[in-house]
TrEMBL record:
<feature type="domain" description="HTH araC/xylS-type">
    <location>
        <begin position="85"/>
        <end position="183"/>
    </location>
</feature>
<dbReference type="InterPro" id="IPR016220">
    <property type="entry name" value="Me-P-triester_DNA_alkyl-Trfase"/>
</dbReference>
<keyword id="KW-0489">Methyltransferase</keyword>
<dbReference type="Pfam" id="PF12833">
    <property type="entry name" value="HTH_18"/>
</dbReference>
<dbReference type="InterPro" id="IPR018060">
    <property type="entry name" value="HTH_AraC"/>
</dbReference>
<keyword id="KW-0804">Transcription</keyword>
<keyword id="KW-0808">Transferase</keyword>
<keyword id="KW-0805">Transcription regulation</keyword>
<dbReference type="Pfam" id="PF02805">
    <property type="entry name" value="Ada_Zn_binding"/>
</dbReference>
<dbReference type="InterPro" id="IPR009057">
    <property type="entry name" value="Homeodomain-like_sf"/>
</dbReference>
<dbReference type="GO" id="GO:0008168">
    <property type="term" value="F:methyltransferase activity"/>
</dbReference>
<keyword id="KW-0238">DNA-binding</keyword>
<dbReference type="InterPro" id="IPR004026">
    <property type="entry name" value="Ada_DNA_repair_Zn-bd"/>
</dbReference>
<protein>
    <submittedName>
        <fullName>Methylphosphotriester-DNA--protein-cysteine methyltransferase family protein</fullName>
    </submittedName>
</protein>
<dbReference type="GO" id="GO:0032259">
    <property type="term" value="P:methylation"/>
</dbReference>
<dbReference type="InterPro" id="IPR035451">
    <property type="entry name" value="Ada-like_dom_sf"/>
</dbReference>
<keyword id="KW-0010">Activator</keyword>
Amino acid sequence: MAHLSLSFEEMWEKIIACDRKYDGLFFTAVKTTRIYCRPSCRSRKPKKINVEFYLDVNTVEKAGFRACKRCQPHTEHSPYIRLVQKVVAFLINHYKEKLVLQDIADYVGISPFYLDRIFKQETSETPRTYLEKIRVDKAAYLLKSTDLTNLEICYETGFQSPSNFYKSFRSLNQCSPSEYRKLHKNRN
């Protein structure tokens, strides 16, 4: 599997949120129990200090971890899961770029129509809306962890216009980027 451009902190946030979007892209291994899980596993969360992240099943199993019985991270539930994982990894690694469906389809080697249909069937979303969620996730992380301005974050996360950024951010977080920053800066 290709390198995934997510920091430890971002992966940690995904497991705390039980975020299904990242299932299959990385695995959470708990050093104390020697068990590994999907990011969306609903089991009790380990202490951060006891966690390691792995990008594929073979590596985590070679490191001596065994699969969680609850989330069964070693099983694939669909014949298209690899294709979807490849698309999601591509979106995560290229979210800053101006992407069109054809770019993504070229990367995975299928037609844009087929890609759109399979992706929607597997995730209930189009690659475009999925990319938007990844960009908003990244923006939320930057709002909490940096002092970049909202406009800098808008362009840093691949949005083409501030109005699209604000609209997308508000629809996914029920608040503006500024309100989000204020809310989360007070928590730290």
